[in-house]
Write a structure and sequence with these properties.
The protein has helices at 24-30, 66-73; strands at 2-7, 13-18, 50-53, 82-84, 97-100. With 105 residues, it is α+β, with helices and mostly antiparallel strands. The chain has one domain (2-100): Roll (Ubiquitin-like (UB roll)), CATH 3.10.20.30. It is globular and about 30 Å long. 29% of the residues are buried.
Length: 105
Amino acid sequence: MTTFTVVAHDGLEQVFSTEAGVSIMEIIRDGGVENFPAICGGCCSCATCHVYIDPASLKGAPSVSEDENELLDSAEHRRSTSRLSCQVLSEFLQDGARVELPPAD
């Protein structure tokens, strides 16, 4: 089981525990984090599940795909640590990782 912290737009922190095989997007969305639309539901066709994840907190995660990269280019607050949370499964997070939401638009 992996435990990680989500830092919301307002700085509020929420801790989640999860089993493998679930995307970070699903955990955040289903966990009731406000202002996290995840409009496409994990189809990698929007950037509304954009998050920041320190690469040191990822273990064995696939690199950003071409599709993910193009969508992140459309995100207003892209950083070098930006990922689409629908593309990162929970098993790729180090226990104790922090996932931050970008500023609300």
